[in-house]
Amino acid sequence: MLKAKCIDDGGALNLEIGDEYFVTPSDDGYYLYCYRFPNSKNAYFGVYPSRLFKLLEAAPVIEKGKWYTGELVNSENYKLEYKQYFLRLNQKTHVYFYSGIDKSGFQGCFPLEWFKDIREEAESDMTGQEVQENVHETEESEPITPVIVQETGQFEQMSLF
Could you tell me the superkingdom of the organism this chain comes from (predicted)? Predict the structure, then answer.
């Protein structure tokens, strides 16, 4: 998928001059299929002549389950540093981002377009430490035997004071 800037709306109501869209060319290259987001078929909104657009760059394709790095360039009203973060796809348009090499410092979930220079993290760059779930190990001790409780039908009144 490519990124393109609209240079002429051609009379179309869906296009805004100066806005950026994600596009894929048709087989003959004369038309472009336009999308509002890069990874969503639901973001499709029309087919327009390619002369209405100026190609900018290829949009990053992010897959679930893989780690990426990207630089935060927009954080709206959030007070975060504009630096390199580790990214993981949440939805088709948003990513979870983490700070720290071990990817443990969860920072939040932002739109994909708030990051630039998104690259897949190479295997050699990875430290081998994935985000781990909290696992409690039990010590080797006596086997636990189930306790059978018999109900007698009698209850004891408890006093709170």
Answer: Bacteria
pLDDT at 123: 57
Domain residue spans of the chain: 2-58, 68-120
- Alpha-carbon distance 144 to 147, whole Å? 9
As given in the structure block, the two tokens for residue 142 are 């006596």
* CATH no., domain 2-58: 2.30.30.40
Q: Number of H helices and number of E strands within the chain?
A: 0, 10
pLDDT given at position 155: 65
Alpha-carbon distances, residue 82 vs 3, 68, 78, 115, 116 (angstroms): 23, 16, 11, 9, 11
Q: Are the beta carbons of 75 and 99 closer than 8 angstroms?
A: no
